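User: Could you check the structure of this?
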Amino acid sequence: MSAAAALLRFRLAASTSLPASRPQCAGVAARRVAVAVTRPQVRFYAKAAKKSKDKGKEKEKEKDLPPAKQSKKGVATDELVPASQRIVSSEEYKKTEGKMQTVLEWFRKEVAALETRATGRVTPALLSPVRVKVAGASDSRGVRLEEVATVGVKEGTTLLVTVFEEHTLKGVEQAIYEAKIPGITPQRLDSRTIKIPIPKPTVETRNALYTNATRLAEDARVQMRKHHQALLKKEDINKHSPDFATYQGLLDKLLADLDKILAHLKKTTG
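Assistant: Sure, the predicted structure tokens are below.
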């Protein structure tokens, strides 16, 4: 039984129970029910929102607006960059890291030459710390020895230094003395050649080489800390800054690498 039929039946039953003095009211109610049943039911639906044809153009116009007037939308989590990653990718951080790495590589080369000396091997690299002062040199410390002379090995125990020009012999000899390389004593052979006998390293010689390495290590640490402090000053970072640990990690890592190089030399020198 449909809902309309049930309603009609209910209305008719109600009309029969009315008093006889109101027959007209009952007839009117019956007619109203009949009309309600026979009248077709009409359903109304919400209209679909009209799609804007110019939606693409509106987005292009929004891009041209200032950031303050653009519509604010959520940012995908995969587009967020961690603070530590943002710091290490900055230009100032990379520049400072490069400078500190240069200091570390310089120390590594110096220690390699000392290690060669401590093991008793005779190579031209033993004279790598020598800097010769010549007129017109751009570096106040002087030029490298190989720029003004050749260095050879004789019988595996002696270094022979031959200068390109005779007038530079005195400057080369003085530069070798000033380098203060343990066990190195230059001897003139002629107007262009210097002989340097290399004795076998003793315990005292090894200790002197390690002492020299520790002095170089301290110089390297000072240079690294200077570059690190300059970076903190440029980025306005102090010990209480949230990102201080990231900057401090750079210095700690490079100092740890330096200590490893020094520890390896200590093991080599016994």
